[in-house]
Design brief:
2 domains, Aspartate Aminotransferase, domain 1, alpha/beta
Length: 459
């Protein structure tokens, strides 16, 4: 079969949403009003919104039809039965506990199993995961392979766990103080990088040796499975659905944000085999989320997620999804802009520390680059670096492992011409990099400061 260069979206556009074409002057004022925090901007003041791919994608015709089918019974809704079946068709876990989004699943899980003196290893904790671990008094430890901390390294599975480091963390903490091991697929904080099946099997073996459960932070499980299909020897002939099932078979439980590879605008779940842990989690769910058959969601949301789980493992969708992200990343590479490579599944990560080497990490080069992209082109990205991860529970601050700007692409939302515009803006801002300056913090909360922090530019 002939393979052509042009990426064709495997869908037709059924409805459109207008974009307000703001001016540079208006964007400068909006940014000042927001305290130079892109999370504080009104969405209507953004031209291309790449802040996150979480819940920002377009749902399909069949998902909107499923919403009409939703049953809103408080208890025992048939929409929950359909949702649970769709989850268990991909993931084999005995207990499926719906939540309103992924961080609620994290909150319930770690409030149940973690606490002071406990240690949670992960390839790389993302922001809400780390915050929910640390909120209990436990310690979150990252054990990604060394290649995962080098943006330019071309290792095909930079999300892999460093097995020696994992064993060292478990041994030093004592297995009795490690309630579980977690692996994030794909590894968001490390540039959306995948984890191989070979590595997951090896992590499973380590967990078995120490008698520890293994959990997946599986928000982007389908993208991870596609990378396994494309990059891992012996996997090219397997259906993506089958690869997902093997990933799940290696774990004892999972947290999930359905706002990513559930292709929905809201929702998530917590799943596991352990009856006792599930019972404790359900009790906490009832206190904080809702009854166990809706978990903070409407029945229509459960139905939309169930349909999304069917669509997300379609190879035509995944091929388009990964290729369209690579289209943006490859163009930036050709323009000489440093990015995390290989290109991840859901986002392109610009290496702000390399591009803005004149700005020290504690002056937040990622934030400097992200705000410049907004001012010059109305593009909203997200700093993934020292502003997000530099502050520690004891109040000290150190540079993060990397200072990145994530351009997260919402699913089935933007066209190739939108990405061409992003390429132009990023290239222009990079040409002006020497003129950019860092930031200092005016006000910050004790946890997850990047969401509400207010800053000012340094002279």
């Amino acid at each position: 079969m002939q393979h052509f260069k042009t990426i064709i979206e495997p869908f037709r556009i059924h409805a459109v949403e207008p974009i307000t074409m703001t001016t540079r002057e208006a964007r400068v004022r909006a940014l000042e009003d927001a305290g130079y925090n892109l999370f504080g901007l009104p969405a209507e003041d953004v031209i291309i919104d790449l802040l996150t791919d979480s819940g920002t994608g377009a749902m399909s015709r069949d998902q909107w039809a499923a919403i009409q089918h939703g049953d809103e019974s408080y208890a025992g809704s048939p929409s929950f039965t359909l949702f649970r079946k769709a989850v268990q068709d991909l993931f084999h876990f005995k207990h499926v506990i719906p939540t309103h989004q992924g961080r609620a699943a994290e909150k319930i899980l770690f409030a149940t199993v973690a606490g002071p003196g406990k240690v949670i290893p992960n390839n790389t904790h993302f922001d809400t995961t780390r915050a929910n671990v640390e909120f209990t008094g436990a310690t979150a430890v990252d054990v990604v392979i060394p290649e995962g901390r080098i943006p330019s390294n071309l290792h095909p599975f930079k999300g892999n766990v460093d097995l020696a480091a994992l064993e060292r963390v478990i041994t030093e903490a004592g297995p009795e103080n490690v309630p579980l091991v977690m692996v994030t697929v794909t590894n968001n904080s490390g540039g959306g990088q995948p984890v191989s099946l070979e590595n997951l099997r090896a992590v499973r073996a380590v967990c078995d040796r120490f008698g520890l459960p293994l959990y997946l932070d599986a928000c982007r499980f389908a993208e991870n499975a596609w990378f396994i299909h494309e990059r891992e020897p012996g996997q090219a002939g397997r259906p993506v659905r089958e690869i997902v099932r093997e990933m799940a078979s290696l774990a004892d439980g999972m947290t999930m944000s359905a706002k990513k590879d559930g292709l929905a605008n809201i929702g998530g779940w917590l799943a596991m085999h352990d009856d006792a842990v599930a019972a404790r989690c359900r009790n906490l769910l009832i206190l904080t989320e809702g009854f166990p058959t809706y978990g903070g969601l409407a029945g229509r949301d459960l139905e939309a997620i169930a349909q999304g789980l069917v669509e997300v493992v379609d190879p035509d969708y995944l091929r388009y999804r990964i290729r369209s992200t690579a289209y943006l990343g490859d163009a930036l590479v050709r323009a000489g802009i440093p990015v995390v490579r290989p290109i991840g599944g859901h986002a392109v990560y610009i290496d702000a520390r390399a591009l803005l080497a004149h700005i020290p990490p504690l002056q937040y080069p990622g934030q400097a680059l992200a705000t410049a992209l907004y001012v010059e082109g109305g593009i909203r990205g997200c700093e993934i670096g020292t502003l997000m991860f530099g502050r520690h529970p004891d109040g000290t601050e150190t540079p993060a492992a990397m200072d990145l700007v994530r351009l997260a692409i919402p699913r089935r939302t933007y066209t190739q011409s939108h990405m061409d515009y992003v390429i132009e803006v990023v290239t222009y801002v990079a040409s002006q990099a020497a003129a950019l300056r860092g930031f200092e913090i005016l006000d910050e909360p004790p946890q997850l400061r990047h969401f509400t922090v207010r800053l000012r530019p340094l002279a």
